[in-house]
Amino acid sequence: MGNSGLKQHYETASKTGVLQISDHRLKEIPQDVFSLSEHLRNLDISKNKIVNLDDISRLKILKQLNVSTNAIQELPSSIGNLRKLEMLNVSFNSIHCLPDSFSNLSNLKQIYLNNNKFKQFPKQLLGLTNVEVIDLSNNKLTMLPSGMANMFAAELNLSQNEISSLGEDLHKAPRLKILRLDENCLGLDSITPSLLRDSKIHTITIDGNLFEPKQLTSLEGYNEYSERYTTIKKKMF
């Protein structure tokens, strides 16, 4: 679909601040999008064939950016200028690392990096104090680094990776309550007593690892974890 077919979308976005132009076979972000820089708060350009986001920093008031299911291999360092960004979805691309400037995105609350090519946990995610959800599922991660005590998400999805080690200080993550670890390479000894006993985690999903989930009940710290789980379930019902 050509630019003429998108004209109505742009006109509406100039009034609403919301532009949705997914699934239009776009190979780059149309220049007309940047003409909306004073208005655009929510941009969805998912399901296209976009290769780079080089000019994305021109959209300085963006709060939500969805570029999932494109052909992006790396994010530009200028993305760190999107200081108002609260939700970023770059899932289903070919990204393997984040630029250092990503640490500047201090207002991010939801970060979707799933279905990419990350082999290492991006340390740029550490220290983002407002983040609530990080999704790194379906990548190539093998371990978690030290420093996870500075990971502030309440929910961390690491399912469908190749993780065999959870690092030494994950239990110190100050707000972590939901930890998804399905389909990794974890042994039972990877689930440390401190993770069960001393963390704030109330839900761990571990199907598809090198042990049966029911074996958790034999571990030191399981009773404390079970109490948190039971408490949260009671609050939900």
- What is the averaged pLDDT score? 95
Walk across the major sheet and give the strand order: 1-2-3-4-5-6-7-8-9
Q: Which H/E pattern describes the elements?
A: HEHEEEEEEEHEH
CATH class reads Alpha Beta
Q: What best-fitting shape do the alpha-carbon axes yield?
A: elongated
Q: CATH fold name, please?
A: Leucine-rich repeat, LRR (right-handed beta-alpha superhelix)
Uncertain spans, ≥5 residues at pLDDT below 50? none
Structural class: alpha/beta
How many domains make up the 3D coordinates? 1
Distance between the termini: 48 Å
Plain-language structure description:
The protein is of the alpha/beta class and 237 residues long. The protein has a single domain (3-236), classed as Leucine-rich repeat, LRR (right-handed beta-alpha superhelix) (Alpha-Beta Horseshoe), CATH 3.80.10. 16% of the residues lie in helices and 11% in strands. It contains 4 helices and 9 strands, in the order H-E-H-E-E-E-E-E-E-E-H-E-H. A 9-stranded parallel beta sheet has the order 1-2-3-4-5-6-7-8-9. Strand 1, helix 2 (31-34) and strand 2 form a beta-alpha-beta unit. It is elongated, with a radius of gyration of 20 Å. The model has no long low-confidence stretch (mean pLDDT 95).
